[in-house]
Amino acid sequence: MITTDSLKLSAIALASLMLCACATVPAGGNGAAAAPAAAASAPATAASGAPGAPGAPSPMTARPPADPTAPKPFAEVSRDTKRQDGLFPILRKDEKVWLEIPRAMLNKPFLFTINISSSIGERGFYASQMGPDVMAEWRRVGNMIQLVALNTRFRAEGGGKRAVEEAFSPSLLAAGPVASADHPERKSFLVDAGLLLTDIPGMSTRMEMAFRLPYSVDRSNSYFETTRADGTLSTLSAKVHYFTPRIPAPPLVAPPVPVPPPPMATPDPRSMFMGFVYNFRALPEAAMPTRRADGRLGHFTESFNDLSDDSKANTRVHYINRWRLEKKDPSAALSEPVQPIVYWMDKNIPAKYRPAVEAGILEWNKAFEKIGFKNAVVAKQQPDDADWDNMDAQHASIRWFVGADVGFAIGPSHVDPRTGEILDADIGMSDVFSRGGRAFISEDVPRLTSLSDEEKALAQMNQGWREGRNASYCTYAMDAASEMNFALDILEARGDIDPNSPEAEAFVQARIKDVIMHEVGHTLGLKHNFKASTTVSQAQLKDKAYTDAHGISGSVMDYNAYNIPLEGEAPTSYNNTTLGAYDYWAIEYAYKTVGKEQEEAELTRIASRNTEPGHAYADDTDAGGFGPYDGMDPMINRFDLGDDPLAYYQKRLKLSQELWNRVQNRKPVAGEDPLRQRRSLINGFMQLGRASELVGKYVGGMYTVRDVPGASRPALTPVDPAKQREALRFLATGLFSADSFRFKPEFLSSLTTDYVEFARPQWVSIPAAVSTVQLAALNRLLSVSTAVRLMELPNYVPASQRKGIISLNEVYGTLQSSIWSELKTGGEIDRLRRNLQREYLRRLQANLTHGNATGQFADAYALMRFQATQLQSELRAAQSRGGQSVETRAHIAESLDLLSTTLKATMTRT
């Protein structure tokens, strides 16, 4: 049967044959077939003459014209260029740059990295940042060259490599035509480096996400600034121009979701340059021995799926990230390394902060000395007149950068994906301590999270190529600056410190050292440890001898709060000044020299010390705060202190109230910063905003420990009911109480703004700030995850011990009665309490009309409706009682109407 498709194919084939026939007709048109290529290129031997005559050149033997698409000779392309020898030699002539690719280097893996040397200074786009890294190779296809990122996420370490390669694709990063023929001696060819002047880092997507504008690379206005090469490295620093044709006009009607503004830090928001440092680095010829990860302590890992053995249920493999550290004298108990870990301090670091940065780097030598390495970590200062950039792939560095809205430090690294060997690291340190810290905290309503959801998403995209490889976005510097501001405000208000004194400068220097220790720890391969602060008791925090010797936390890898004494208490150490017990332990596991035969047993022995005091460990996922992870262990937090976090939060409320009382009693001085008082006010709110959510973790909480199967300790233990009830009482009497947020009218009316600025903050809204604090706890207590855990807690407790266990109904009842306590007393309901009650009703309405009344939440839904019905009765009784102000009566009537409507509504079941 002849189909339409077969007829089409026949027609195409016939046309192809006709085209081929036409192509083989000689120029004379006599219909003879063309000569084979070898004959066509043979030298002519006959003398010239008439066609067909003896000695006349035959059409069959004439030399064809040169192929216009063939690459030009190497010597012609490279004429008058300046050459830099390296892994891939770099040739340059005026604005043109070429890479020389030896044929022997085709299909040979190397490390390709991109660092961001300059940017626009806002919304997540900052200078001095490490970008992606991949194992890549050059592939030649005809006269095209391809830069290909190899797929290292799926491997076959023990066989089956071909099947894996066929199953999982690599990615094309860049491509272009070969620029020259082969060099006759070196067997290499040239490639136009302009193929790199594209959006390889994916910045256009990030910019669209940040600004909701389509930016593209403008190749014609992008160029290479500098180049550098040596035997194992080739580096090209490029300026890439991004543009958008136009900025759209704002909508006439406000959209339901606010549209972010265009870039504000550039002269023209349609145009911006970003600096990228492209590094081609040779992988070590001798691969470093790998070291397996152990979940009882935290290291960044090179993680992949090994599909070579189909008998393994879990195909995941995790090699820890670590520098190659080998003793010069293997027999010595203490030896210098063959190659130390060298950090170059950027010349942009202000001279007055360099000693603190250096101290933070060198502090880690204490941990390496414990395992036999002397001077394992070295700090060097980049000369102020240096003409080289430490953002290449061979200089680990501490980079100092600025921005319009920046306030963080970050400690990423680039590794050999085959083994996890750290090859480069560039710590980014913003000026948050000298300038940005105070500027950050000037909003009317405090930012109670370190990063917005959009900023977190941008951070994750920035790490997109490096899944499982130091992919943690660290905001310690910004949050630590907030902590520092709060501490300085209190100490200044007490008269214990002058903000312009040497003591205040030492205060800042100590915090810089703390943050540098933290970020250097990341670049040594250590993840966050958000449980470390709980390994120090409340009594030890008050013991100056202890804190001077051991610090205030079990690890510098925690987000450690300031150890501020209550009024009348003697001060000890304010912040962390040295490594903790966990840091020594984690470095030992990663870097201790162990023979291959003894490695398995020795690593197991080291990791099994997780039960020792000071070795508690938990990471970002355990702490929660992103994605589906809400953090159920109240002992795992960012910015708490001591072995009783709830006591710490109660202390923080007292400190905030002390600060507010002192600021209200202080008279502003002419000539001082007009935003000073409002910053102090908001610094107190920021502390309570963080505490509010974390207190809620106790309710329905589970204590967790990291251990191996068969360990003597249970992995999960419900929080003691008494502790859960204490947390509820603290919320009811502390953060939910309007009395905790009383301010003098004279103080509020004195809060001015900076009238020199056009875009300036307006008046401070205390109800808005209070609401932000309270809703953090309210959202957690009424969440589905908290409800589910409370209902499941009895499953983790023996039947004989279930008496007195806290129930979901008790939590809902306690929460509702504390929020609506005025209904029973008949008292006035002030504005702060009315706001809280309205927010409570909104959450009831959402859960009862649009929630999930089936599955795991079914019982919670029934209990919530039961409590709502009781509240309806209490509101009716309060309404009939009367006697309150018109505002209170109106609020009760509106609340009753909203609740009654909600209870009558049809449930949208999902």
UniProtKB/TrEMBL annotation:
Superkingdom to which the source organism belongs: Bacteria
Entry-linked Pfam families: DUF4953 (PF16313), DUF5117 (PF17148), DUF5118 (PF17162)
Bias-annotated ranges (Low complexity): 45-61
Region (Disordered) residue spans: 45-81
Cited SUPFAM superfamilies: Metalloproteases ('zincins'), catalytic domain (SSF55486)
UniProt keyword list: Signal
Residue ranges crossing the lipid bilayer per the database entry: none
Annotated InterPro entries: DUF5117, DUF5118, EcxA_zinc-bd, MetalloPept_cat_dom_sf, Zn_MMP-like_bac
Signal peptide: 1-23
Record-annotated DUF5117 domain positions: 131-328
Boundaries of every DUF5118 domain copy: 71-117
Chain ranges of the EcxA zinc-binding domain: 502-824
Family matches, as CDD domains: ZnMc_MMP_like_2
Name of the protein: Metallopeptidase
Source organism of the structure: Roseateles terrae
